[in-house]
Specification:
Structural class: mainly alpha
Radius of gyration: 21 Å
CATH topology: Growth Hormone, Chain: A
Oligomer: single chain
Strand content: under 5%
Number of helices: 17
Number of strands: 2
Helix content: over 70%
Order of helices and strands: HHHHHHHHHHHHHHHHHEE
Largest sheet: 2 strands, antiparallel
CATH architecture: Up-down Bundle
Number of domains: 1
Length: 465
């Protein structure tokens, strides 16, 4: 791939892009199940998927344990907000350095180093709970550590997908990766809540550490050479990190599609995701539930998220911008009904719909950024995209404070309405979101041996040329 101005990067699959080579035309008569799970035919991706399952399960369980313990110790929504802010600050400040690491170092090694720190963090928390020394300050410190690790590790992990998968399956692979996360969201919180209620939070943290070990081992078989960043125009690692950061910001500023996608994602995340952080207090205040009820609600949301992710994995690369905003609108409407409901049964059913909308929004926002970004900027752009997680926690901080003043149901309902209005406004007044994927070309190529999304040859053996 030759160099060019930052604004000149063609979209993945456009007729002008070398990465358009190998995109199959249509489904070729394959069955729905084979189309949906196509990327799992790639052995290297199967290992990546296994590691993703371990990581997602650990993160879901850790989030549940931390939120439950903070509210159990303090009974305060504000304390939940402070904990979220503690995790958000390092994620907001260190995400771009994480992207620079992803564009400079073997991405596999960056991910494994981060997961090793996560194992140590979970084991430390298990020891504190088991010895009855746990205090809120320890939970906040653990949140800070996890925020640092996520900011430095996650850009590399997300950037690995185009490294190891044929470009014809990029959308499918990212959606399946999300489906794996959602399946763990379905099982891990419920199992974790039941385990915590029965055996205690120390056992929950022990399982968390074990799942992070699975995440480390899952990517061991992936050849390191596949995850080495591509160099352009004879570039070497001598370039300063500051120069890399400035180049990434300049690229985003002049590329209208990437700039639009990141801006839309920023606004919708702030409005759509903080409910997850506030949920422990919501469950106890509105329904009088504890860890078991919280785990059930998170798991029931996972059912909808899994369905939504698999639906996205089955879709062709058409009108994804509109589907993205429809998912955001669905999330807002369903969150409003959930916020005003006091029925446990109705709220459980509505959370399934929330899960469908959330999965569609998360999967497609990631897919579109990965599809339209130029390879040389991938890690850094994804690092800025990944700040959505820090924005989630920052939004939860302010929503937690407002919930203390006005009541959690009123605040959640107001935020959900804001998301509905925003989604409609984006579709109405941002024509670029409606025009995504129009006029995209395609070329036939056998799906099992083709270029990866970064332009490398990918075979069943997982070796690159």
């Amino acid at each position: 791939m030759t160099s060019g101005g930052p604004g000149a990067a063609p979209a993945l699959g456009s007729p002008d892009s070398p990465r358009a080579i190998g995109r199959p035309a249509g489904g070729g008569g394959r069955g729905l199940a084979r189309t949906t799970f196509a990327s799992l035919e790639e052995p290297v991706f199967r290992w990546f998927f296994l590691g993703q399952m371990g990581q997602s399960g650990a993160m879901q369980l850790q989030q549940l344990l931390r939120g439950y313990l903070v509210f159990d110790l303090t009974g305060s929504f504000a304390a939940l907000g402070v904990m979220s802010l503690a995790q958000a600050v390092p994620m907001l400040t260190l995400s771009l350095p994480g992207g620079i690491l992803a564009d400079r170092l073997p991405r596999k090694h960056v991910v494994q180093a981060g997961q090793a720190v996560n194992v140590a963090n979970a084991l430390a928390m298990a020891a504190l709970v088991a010895t009855a020394w746990l205090r809120v300050e320890h939970l906040i410190a653990s949140a800070v550590v996890q925020g640092v690790v996520m900011s430095l590790m996650m850009p590399a992990r997300q950037s690995m997908i185009p490294d190891i998968i044929p470009l014809s399956r990029l959308t499918n692979a990212i959606a399946l990766n999300s489906a794996g996360m959602q399946s763990m969201r379905l099982f891990a919180p419920g199992a974790g809540g039941a385990l915590t209620a029965w055996a205690g939070a120390d056992w929950g943290y022990g399982v968390t550490a074990a799942l992070y070990v699975v995440a480390i081992l899952g990517i061991v078989p992936i050849p390191t050479r596949l995850t080495n960043p591509v160099r352009y125009d004879g570039a070497s690692g001598a370039r300063s990190a500051t120069g890399d950061a400035v180049d990434a910001v300049r690229y985003i500023a002049v590329d209208p599609t990437i700039r639009m996608l990141l801006a839309v994602n920023l606004v919708t995340v702030v409005l759509a995701m903080p409910y997850i952080i506030i949920l422990p207090g919501f469950v106890e205040t509105v329904f009088g539930g504890g860890a078991g009820s919280l785990g059930f609600f998170l798991s029931i949301t996972g059912i909808g998220s899994l369905v939504g992710s698999l639906a996205i994995a089955s879709l062709p690369d058409r009108r994804r911008g509109l589907i993205l905003m429809a998912s955001s609108l669905l999330t807002g409407l369903s969150l409003f009904v959930f916020a005003v409901s006091s029925s446990f049964v109705l709220s459980s059913l509505i959370l399934i719909v929330v899960g469908v909308g959330t999965a569609g929004r998360l999967s497609l926002s990631n897919v579109l950024v990965q599809a339209y970004v130029e390879e040389r900027y991938r890690g850094r752009v994804l690092s800025i995209y990944m700040t959505q997680f820090s924005l989630l926690f920052i939004g939860a901080f302010f929503i937690g404070i407002l919930a203390e003043w006005f009541g959690v149901q009123r605040v959640m309902a107001a935020v959900a309405l804001a998301l509905v209005v925003t989604s409609v406004a984006v579709v109405a007044f941002v024509p670029r979101i409606r025009e995504l994927d129009r006029g995209r070309g395609s070329a036939a190529r056998p799906p099992r041996a083709g270029l990866t999304a970064r332009g490398r040859l990918c075979h069943d053996s997982g070796e690159s040329g």
